[in-house]
Amino acid sequence: MLVVLAALDLIAALTLILLSFGFFVKFLITASAIYLLVKGLIFIKDFASAFDIGIALFLFLSFAFSLPKVILLVSALFLLQKAAFSFLS
User: Which of 4, 13, 65, 71 lies 20 to 30 Å from 87, alpha-carbon distance?
Assistant: First the structure.
C-alpha cells in the first residue's frame, strides 16, 4: 500500500513540475489535487498531511490563477522527497 501512495505522490509531483513549465493538463491537475486532498484528510493527524492539503489547494487555485513557479517547484520537491522515502522504506 505504501508503494501505491508513493507512486501517486510521484505522479502529483510530476504534475506540479509540468504545471510550472506551462503544461496545463486539467485531468492530471484535478486527479492529483483530489488525491492529495483525500490523503491529507485521511491522515490528518500527521504533520505532513497539512502540506498535502495545502498543495491540493494550490492545484485547485491553478485553474483560476497563474501560480508562482517557485511555489510549484518547492511543492514538487516536497512530494518527491516523500515519495523517495516511501519507496526506500
Answer: 71
